[in-house]
Amino acid sequence: MFYAFGAFLILYLVGASIYQIFLWIRKWREKKENDIEEK
Fold it and tell me: From CA 13, how far away is CA 20, in angstroms rounded?
């Protein structure tokens, strides 16, 4: 039982990390495009 909970927790943390990185990259790309348009 504890093993299953640990596996779920690891999957949740990995998924959350990937999601945060994805959002950060998308935000960074939008900022980069806006900087290019302003110049």
Answer: 11
